[in-house]
Amino acid sequence: MSDLTDKLKEYEDFELAFLFKYQKSNFLDATYKKIEDEINSRNLNSKDINFLINRKLKVRINNHKLNVCPRCTSEKIISSREESDLQENVGLYKYTPIYFEHRTCGVCGWDFAKNLTRFDKRKILKIFLVSIFISIVFTLLFRLLLKLQELIW
Predict the structure, then answer these.
(1) What pLDDT does residue 139 have?
(2) Which of 43, 45, 76, 135 has the fewest Cβ atoms within 10 Å of its own Cβ atom?
């Protein structure tokens, strides 16, 4: 057996389903064929794959900072550390590179830096609506103060 076949045996059924659906364009034909073979060896058909994916998509993970993918709930997270062109000044003539950690799901390809969960979207929407409300209140208060000033003069 090849290393890939052994690795695929470690995947749970739902993880294979997400690999099959979300990562098809990222694999060579031979690799994708091995994924299909593993799915067939587990007697999973397209109905089973859709059921597994839909069941996991209904799970809500509010804090995607954890090492769990918010889309597929897999714990197979790939982390890489990238060095930035920017450098931090730590003293006279001393600079240290700035590193950014990049995390993606190894199963479905979720990018933790780019993709937002439903929870994140709601949080952003709440902040946006509250800021609009506050700006309206301040505008009305300012206009009220102007009217009072006119009455006093």
Answers:
(1) 92
(2) 43
